[in-house]
Hints:
The protein is of the alpha/beta class. The chain has helices at about 25-30, 55-65, 100-110, 135-150, 165-170, 185-195, 220-230, 235-245, 260-275, 320-335, 350-355, 370-375, 380-385, 395-410, 420-439, and strands at about 1-5, 15-20, 45-50, 70-75, 110-115, 125, 130-135, 155, 175-180, 195-200, 205, 215, 285-295, 295-305, 310-315, 340-345, 365.
Amino acid sequence: MHVASFADAAGAPQKGEIRKIDTRVAYAKRVLSFIDPGQLKPLRIVANAGNGAAGPTFDAIAELMEASGAVLEITRVHQEPDGTFPNGIPNPLLPENHEATASVVREAGADLGVAWDGDFDRCFFFDEKGQFVPGEYIVGVLARAMLEREPGAVIVHDPRVVWNTQRIVGNLGGRAVVSRTGHALVKEKMRKVEAAYGGEMSAHHYFRDFMNCDSGMIPLVLVLDLLSRTGTSLSAEVSEMRERHPSSGEINFRVENWWQRFGPLFAAEIQKRRIEGMKSSRWRWHLDEIFVKINGDRHYLWRAVDHEGEVLESFVTKARDKKAALKFLKKAMRKHGRPEVIVTDRLRSYSAALKEIGSAERQNTGRWLNNRAGNSHLPFRRLERAMLRFRSMQSLQKFASIHASIYNLFNLERSLSSRPNFKLNRAAALAEWRCLGAT
Length: 439
């Protein structure tokens, strides 16, 4: 590390100097302050740095441990830092990366193996059989180590896998406190409750005496110390945890086109709740239709909007005739009942359809009366341009229906509300949205 110090601003009579300072030794000493290295029993270790940044730092720590009397037989794997990562991305959490460490543990007859990610803020353990030890069990192991070091301490853990950690902490007289996942949130919770240790199943481990920061080296020395003091193996330490609290680990998957999968569910639930809250059918409806291109062909998107701008129904057709208008009106009235007034443009298909269903007297036409429906199309048009048109009637119908329901939820008409009322309505809309996401 290079530090430049200057006596004063540019032009000062005394020149500055550049000093080279090696901070790695100080870092290694801080890591080892959590244990007494001289008390470690002889151990065989496999250390896989994954060609990341861990190698030189681990070497500095191992050198200090051996200088303090520790007898360690270390087999190093992918030790040299190499930003091209010739042996693959250093993410030991991936199952396909386990064997690189596990096979060496078995071949060397090691007591345990450890592998780090690229910046070594996470470390992952393998027992003496080469079996990967999931992070949720290591949280339990480290919770025990910290409580034996500091009886009655507070231990923070993330909310994904909790029973194992809570059982161990409770049995040892500590206090387990749950925190939301994420390093900023865990650190905040640790400071708030003055926790000695915080752990996540993702293999991030935080320590109060390390400025509440996560470390990929402190967990290793704590595990070595625990195994030395107890005389047990790592597999024995976690065997009861595995038996009592089986865990699938974190399962990640990608949902393609999530809006197509979940959008209709959200939209249907929003529409259901809003219809239930609008029992009166004495609305004024505004009906109109817009042209939409699908693969270069003209189609029609019919829309019914009430007097408050609520989009009640969207319907896609190839024609703009009486048959299409009739189908659209029947669909809307099945859901929402018959309004007192139906405002339309002068398209004759509307009057013919309304006459057939016995609602001709409800129709009202006028040059400016239907601005409400016209204005309601503007958000849809903006999204249509962003999506570069639609490829089928089905995708247009699905998108129009989903967009209408979500637009209704957040259509707060800012210009018609005072700022306090707008903020209250927005908070209510967001609360309802979060509720939908939670269910």
